[in-house]
Design goal:
metal-binding; about 260 residues; 2 domains; 8-stranded antiparallel beta sheet; about 25% strand; alpha+beta; Herpes Virus-1; 12 strands; about 25% helix; single chain; binds zinc ion; two-stranded antiparallel sheet
């Protein structure tokens, strides 16, 4: 293990503390229950797919020391307790990613959009008209992450990294993705899977599609089953402060077995 500690994760509605473990090739995070002694719902992210993006501090919201963790299936923001911890975490994660790529792993080409938190806007970010209410609910475009109204996100598009089924996208992204697909087809002169299904306008939008907890497990690849992971993590003690087991300043670190 390279480091472990608690990071605050930006979720759809609010920030939540998450216990995070960094290994050579995976990042594991889960919610903390029972006096920080046990945690559940572990999520495992293969690191070669990860890309980090810095976030500037937003003093107004007290959102500081944050960055984005982007993966093909899901992307989100996390916040460390101090500037130093942020630097350490980012450096350690980036180092692991770099070493995996150097060792021949292929980095992901596309990353999922980070969902803008619900409270970012009280009106649709696209039409700028619809006020969100109990009836006019917020939706998230799976392609750009914007908070949009139902009218502005009537379509679904197949984004294979995120789901086997077409997912909700805003009208702007729907057009853009459609054009990209067309030019891709023309360039390659092949018919990529006729997916009338994917392009269909959805008449009866199923509201439940958007209500899923953004922490629900997605199709993360599992090198270890979550049960195994929980068992092996159970023996670890958890501290507020992150523990960095390796020094990033070490010139050569032969922790990679591959
Ligand atoms: Zn709208
Ligand atoms: Zn969009």
């Amino acid at each position: 293990m390279i480091c472990s500690g608690i990071l605050t994760k930006g979720c759809r509605k609010k920030l939540k503390p998450r216990q995070v473990f960094l290994f050579n090739d995976i990042l594991v995070y889960g919610s903390i229950i029972i006096n920080k002694k046990k945690y559940n719902r572990q999520h495992i992210i293969p690191l070669e797919n990860v890309k980090l993006d810095n976030l500037d501090d937003e003093d107004s919201d007290n959102l500081r020391f944050g960055w984005q963790i982007k993966t093909p299936t899901k992307s989100f923001a996390v916040y460390a307790a101090t500037a130093t911890e942020k630097v350490e975490w980012m450096a350690h994660i980036n180092k692991c990613v770099d070493e995996l790529i150097k060792a021949g792993n292929r980095p992901a080409e596309e990353h999922a959009a980070v969902w803008k938190p619900d409270k970012t806007s009280n009106i649709c970010m696209h039409c700028k008209k619809t006020q969100f209410t109990v009836i006019n609910r917020r939706h998230h475009c799976r392609s750009c992450g914007d908070v949009v109204c139902g009218q502005c996100s009537k379509s679904k598009f197949l984004i294979p990294n995120q789901s086997a089924k077409p997912v909700r996208v805003c009208d702007g992204c729907y057009d853009k993705l459609g054009k990209m697909r067309t030019s891709f087809k023309e360039k390659n002169n092949t018919d990529i899977q006729s997916d009338g299904k994917a392009m269909n306008k959805i008449e009866n939008m199923n509201e439940s599609s958007d209500s899923e907890d953004d922490d629900s497990p997605q199709n993360l690849s599992k090198r270890q089953t979550e049960d195994d992971m929980c068992r092996s993590l159970e023996d670890l003690t958890i501290d507020e402060k992150p523990t960095f087991y390796g020094s990033i300043t070490k010139p050569e670190d032969k922790r990679l077995s591959a």
